[in-house]
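Many introductory courses stop at the sequence. We go one step further.
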Amino acid sequence: MKGRYFKAALILSAAVVGTYFLFPDPNAEISILIKDGRHDEAYQLAQKSVERSPKDTILRMELAKLQRYRGELDAYEGSLKAILGEEPENVIVQNMLLDHYFTMNNEDTYFQNLEQVALHTKDPAHLSHLVAFRRLDGNHEQELRWLKLLVEASAASLTELDTSRLVLLLLKDGEREEALAYFRTLDNPADAGVDIWGMRAQVFNVLMKTGEPSEAGERAKAWIAQSTDVAGLKGALGIMMSDCWEMGRGDIAVNLAGKAVYRYPELGLAASRFAYKLGLSADAERYLEFMLEKNYAFSSEELGEFVSLKAQFQGPMIAAEFLLAYGPEKVSGEQVVSLIEMLLQAHQDDLAEQLSRYVPADERRFFPLVATKLAMLEGNMVEARQLLEPVKLETLEFSDAEQWFELALGLFGPTYVRQRFLDVPQLGHLNRELLTTYAGFLKASDDEELQRVLIALGGRFPVKGTINGPNMISVR
């Protein structure tokens, strides 16, 4: 009995093997032919096989690939579309068709098909591609649509820019609650970058103005505590402090600035500047002192700004004494000159003269008015005249022109000053206030003297009505 079953099994096996050799697997045979470089034979076999099995998707895909290999691109596209018409969920064929459109530089068709594929597959890569494309072409409505789908598909796939754009676009559309909902879901205090900080500053503003100052403050503290982006934090800090002040919450502003400076002492200058602007003078000074306590290594530019702020808060005398002790040579000549100018205005001539030693002689010519004053302080009238003589009056702003008059009168006398004034080809930028000041320098005792000066100057100009702008010189 057993022998009979054994013989039957052998007969059945032989039949199966024989069937295989009579009707081999076309996919396997096509693959072998392609591997051997016999593409024409593979193509012919694929055509015949598809005719025999028109519903075999694998065979149809093989035929399509061979059509592309032979350069039959229209046939290739038609084969893929035919498959998708029957199997719209076939991701492999979808991607093959996308690749075809991309290769053919058919952008419109490519993105139309990409949208269909993305909607079917929810593939984060496709969704991100569509987000970037719509952002690039300025279609914000579509960008927002694909951003929302990307969040649903894979929130982890969002870049910091994606998160920022999603929230900002919703805020722009007036969808405050939806924007805050996404923000609260996606906010990661460890994120960094200009884009994310710009969005945070706007959300902070919204929270402050809609009665959520506590949440705004707590979130901002978390951002500061985990931030690794000093530049982004610096830019947002001033905006957030201003928002706090505007809403009457200076306490939050001071708290945030203090935490920022404690984490990054280099932010002391920015925090101090913002605090001073908001009228928080004591806090502004405290941030500067904290930088000194931490032995912060100032760059030349930072030290110059530090001294400038110190001069604003505590006066130029204290700032000058600090700089003399710290090392005036560590800042640029321009920064020293700026402090010297403040000292001269405050009649602190001795300190100004001490600092003047740190302005190289070859740099003084770049600051002729201040350098002239210093030369006069030093009793060097020859150098003072040499410094002031080349100054072009027509290039000066009003305040500088006033200084020029005063210095020139002392060094050269009124005749020289009047002649220089008249020799200027165009003084359309000088206004009546300046002319009145000039007349005052000439010790005009009445309006008649002023009119004499104006008439003399008016000879350099066209008649009234040809010079535009308020307060310009004109003669009837």
